[in-house]
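Problem 12. The chain below contains 137 residues. Write out its predicted structure in token notation.
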Amino acid sequence: MRERSAAQPLTYSRKWNMTEGNMTNLSPAAFWILTALAGQRRHGYEILKETTEASDGRVALKVTTLYAALDRLEREGLIRADGQEIVGGRARRYFVLSDSGRVALAAEVAALEQQAAAARQRLADGGSGFVAGAVPV
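Solution.
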């Protein structure tokens, strides 16, 4: 497996989903899309910008990934379409987080926090010199 430098953004072009034990239930793309919509109603381009900004540039969703994920999330009831407008001759379709989406995102955050706490504890127990907030090289 090729290593990625901390400066390279992650890109998601397919679903990655682990559902056993304490693993997370949302794909990374779904997580960042729901995160972008947690604050307000947005259209596709705004979601792309917000996911990159919220992840400090570590995530760069591809347009095809975004729209495939939006369709899937809407079918699953985690988001819903919330109007459309024409700007500069192009249609902007808006989306909002549904109540189910808010619950799913909160559960995902709780699972990720539990996983991070377990990893921090194991690292601290191992005496490896783990420093909270440090980015491994």
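Discussion. Residues 28-125 form a domain with the Arc Repressor Mutant, subunit A fold (CATH 1.10.10.10). Students who got a different answer should revisit the alignment rule from Section 12.3.
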